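During the first year of the project, the team set up a workflow for recording each protein of interest as an amino acid sequence followed immediately by a discrete structure-token representation. This format lets reviewers and collaborators read both layers of information side by side without switching files. As required by the reporting guidelines, we include two representative entries from the current panel. The first entry is reproduced here exactly as it appears in our internal archive.
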Amino acid sequence: MRAGSNRLESGKIALLSAGHLIHDAYPAILAPLIPLLKAKLGLSNALAGTLAVVAAVGGVLQIGLLDLDVPLAGHLVAAAALGVLGLPAVVVLDVALTLRLRARAALVPILALPVLMPQLIAATNASAAALAGEGPTSLAWSALLLAMAVVYGAIGLTIVPTAIE
């Protein structure tokens, strides 16, 4: 590795780290501000929700804009998208189950973590395989993520209406 290219890689890593900091801080700062932004700017729920999508897209753009050497960038994006797809159904299901409890704010993460652990493991393995250039392995883990999202969605659609009543 040349000395000049080492400096370039350090610059890319610093830029990626700064982007990651902004990407992680944005939702944490934005979430409490959404009701205020909706009231002050007259935003609809759909428009306010797109702010979260902008934050997610920022993370994906870090890979493309920095021209990092990711052997299977499409597989990595698919693994990230499929990994996120099953999260809302599990969280909504846990919120619906704890709706009438006082300690629901503490119980929802406790209930969600064991259910989401297989999804977190599959997303980690799919991402690692995509970064290593192992296409079939990445696709297999991504297919498992899709199956989990479908199962979580079906369970959520059948149980949540009953739990709310």
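The second entry, processed by the same pipeline in the following quarter, appears below.
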Amino acid sequence: MPKSARGFTLIELLVVISIIAVLSTIGLTSYKGVQSQARDAARKSDLRNLAIALELYYQKNGTYVLSTQQSCNNTDINTFYSKIAPYISGHVPEDPKGGKYCYYSEGSGKSFRLFAKLEDCKGSADNLCDWLNHNYSVVSADLAVAHDPNDKPIASTLTPTPTPTSTPAPTTTSTPAPVVATPPPTSTSTPSPSPSPSPSPSSSVSPSPSPSLASKRVFATSSKYNGDLGGLTGADSKCQAKADTAGLGGSWRAWISDSKDSARDRLNHYSGEYRLVDNTTVVASNWGDLVDGSLTVAVFKNETNTLAGGYVWTNTKSDGTKAGGSNNSCSDWTYSTFSDSPRGGYGVTGYKDSNWTEGSFGPAYSCDSLFRLYCFEQ
């Protein structure tokens, strides 16, 4: 065999194999990403097609498909699929990975909500990326996008990483070398030893830690009310009654404003943390953090520490000032009739941005609507 005819060395083969492995990994990752994006696009398209079918159903029947429960845990999703089938071309769409989409009606079939779970949720006003089970929604024209009442925020499901406790290294006690005593010179007098100075008491006393401030609690009421709250005093009374019934104790006021008084003026400005009633979940680190335009965690629990989804009467901006006058506060929260004016300003539970108190999903709502209240411990 000529000397020029030689095979690959082992190192060359390993280099080639490594390059092929890296390129395969990159290609596979990109392929999976493209696949998930395609499935998400299909989910969005499916919900839009279902919404169109629901409008056709409404035109014929006078309501959307009725559901017995207003949550994604409803037991009649199969009924929805069978009733909507005649109004959609081909088969009723299901999630690309299997399973039916979530649907439920509200307001005796006058409104509806559809939900899907995207694999790659991008933050926008059209979806709910902070929520665990359903992070994309299409709703009827009269509703604002909101989370499923039985869903949970992703933040509440994360297990905090425990802080490792460092074990102090054992202190090595060195044994002093023996001292060889030198006989003292002969002396006729023995000097008195100087007394060792006593350590100052302050050197052995640890400073007392500064006492930590107790947190104040926050909840959204389990009950819903129309715009006639009995004024601001009536709203405060409703919050106090809910807290008393739940055994929370303390003094409570509603986060709500009318044409004269704002929540910022009515509520105490606490320098400690605001938490949900579980006393663990921090909503804001202090008053300044509360009114800076966003929350640490949304107010999504009621006075019994269970989920409370939906809309809340507020007429209050994210800085605590009033959002409008009498026409935006149901005549200072004494009006409960359907009309174009007055109406009521609102917020939405489950949101951490300014929408938590200053809903931007449409104009103020009619005063006959049934919404919750935000309640703050004073």
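For the second entry, the following points were noted during internal review. The two ends are 95 Å apart (CA to CA). Confidence is low (pLDDT under 50) at residues 166-212. Both points are flagged for discussion at the upcoming steering committee meeting.
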